[in-house]
Every structure is written in C-alpha cells, then in structure tokens.
C-alpha cells in the first residue's frame, strides 16, 4: 500500500488507459465524487435526480479500499493528495467526499484546513432522533467512522433523548460491493454480528436506522428483515445532493452532452470496478 504522503497516485480509466490521456472533461466542470469504493453511487443517484444533466467525475480510490479500516489522519491526507492531483487536470464545479469515514475525519481535523472546499456526508444522528417514535435507534457504520470524535460526541448528545446503539460493521460494505457487482449476498454474518450488540427485544424495538456509510442504502431491502420495525432509514445522500445543487449554477434544463467518467487509483482491478460503474452509465 502506498503511503498517503507518497507521490500523487496515478489515475486510471476502466479500459486500462491513464486518465491523463483523457481530454473529454477538460472543457467541462464536473461534479467530482470521491469514495474508496462504489458507495458514492448512492450520492450520484441523488444528484442525478436533481440535476440529470450534470457532468460527473467519480474518483474511486480502489487502491485504498476500504477507508473504514484506516486512521482518520491518514484518510484526510490521502484525500487531499488525490484532490491535489485531480485538480491539476480538471476544474470541479463541486467536490463531494462521498464517504462517511473520510468526511468525519475531515471534520475532526478541521474542514477549514482542507486545501479544497468539499461537501461532506456525515451521519444524520440528530435527524434520526427527531424521526424516531420509540427513541430506539441503530447506528450502522464502519469502525473508522465510530472512532471519530465528531461522531462520539454526536452519539453522546443524542443519548439524552434516545437509546442509540452504534454497531461497527465492515460486513455491509463488502455485501454492497458484491451486490452491485451482480453477486448473491447473504446477511447471515451480519445477523450474527447484531446478536453481539443487541438483545432480541432491543432489535425489535428499533424503528429508526442511521446508515452511516454511503454503501448501506443499497442494502435497505435486506436490512428490513433484520430490523422489521424500522420505518425510518436515515442517510446523507439526499441532503448533500441538495447542498451541491444550491451552491452550483447547473440547471436541470441544460442541453449540453452529459459526461459521466469513472477513474481509479489501482489499475489491476479497475476493470472489475468499471463493470459496476458502466452499469450505472459511466464511461
């Protein structure tokens, strides 16, 4: 694995060519979406609902997948290094860090200190407390997200008004990646994990689930079986998409040809990743 402080990572296209050789976006200002895997596609889908004619450049940092297992400081440095390199090639209309782990790490280390202005996705814990009737809330996230000082403090404040059970799971990230790649997924391992965190009575009392990873909205149908009383599935994709729309000049009636390009930081499995992105309209 390259150090986040090493030379700027090379960027690759799904056909194995270098992104440096790609000219199609140089005359356009894309919305840049950054994640270590495919989870940021949930943000892309919300953006496309609001501004279907937006040009989107997705930077999948597959060489560093998953961010959730890295330290916050390393992830912040990694994201900065990626954006430093990318912004020499394109001029973004907006940048979305479509990863909760990376976003809360940026908050912890001071978003104002980041060299690039970014829109962040952070767990919507306050919204979950407001939405819950039973005040019984499951908070699903990666271990990296749950170690964040910002998140720890948010949970502590929310527990004044609700029971909040944080559950660290990398399993769901893997399941989401496999599902988008067309594989069959099983929730058995996750169900066993839940038994370590919750009694059956607690599990059945949960009416609100915070999806603290952009991968997790892809799995709501399967998660309904685990949390059958849950009516509220809280995540940040829609909120950050609205923030982007409010801050840009992109209009839904634009007639320009739309470009959706995915780029990767590791060539060896770019083809595998690109199969998923091509099914979602990316070239």
From TrEMBL:
GO molecular function: glutamate racemase activity
Family annotation (Gene3D superfamilies): 3.40.50.1860
EC number assigned by the record: 5.1.1.3
Group of enzyme by EC: isomerase
Chain sites annotated for binding substrate: 35-36, 67-68, 100-101, 214-215
Keywords noted in UniProt: Cell shape, Cell wall biogenesis/degradation, Isomerase, Peptidoglycan synthesis
UniProt pathway annotation: Cell wall biogenesis; peptidoglycan biosynthesis
Active-site residues, as the UniProt record annotates them: 99, 213
Keyword Cell wall biogenesis/degradation: yes
Catalytic activity: L-glutamate = D-glutamate
Biological processes annotated in GO: cell wall organization; peptidoglycan biosynthetic process; regulation of cell shape
Recorded family membership: Belongs to the aspartate/glutamate racemases family.
Job description of the protein: Provides the (R)-glutamate required for cell wall biosynthesis.
Protein name: Glutamate racemase
